[in-house]
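Milestone M4 deliverable, item 7.
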Amino acid sequence: RQACTLSICGTKAYSTVITPKVLFALRYDYVNDILERRDRQWGESTESLRQQHFRFVKEFANTGELIMGGAFDPPSDGALIILKMKNRESAENFAKNDPYVKSGAVTKWDVKPWSVVINTKDLEGKLDHKN
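Output delivered:
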């Protein structure tokens, strides 16, 4: 590892250059009416689609497999989720089982391997895969 200092808008941010870690970037495209659709009940659950989606993704966040995620601004432009999974197939299975995808609220999704070569110090060690 090699430490370096970055200057961002005049503020110094310390980060670490690391051996590349492969994560997966999951990109969602939503239906045009996602803001209305996500608040409606879906399936046999009494929960809204959004509540079901949050319950689903929180399971992965709790295990450390979901690093971060969220909608673009505006949310109708889609979303990005960063996953720490052992392989692409696991990341694809995540997408296939997400209530947003299963309900049709996501019109298109794709998974791309993402090689992280630099990160802030507070993420150091958190991107490593457990064997």
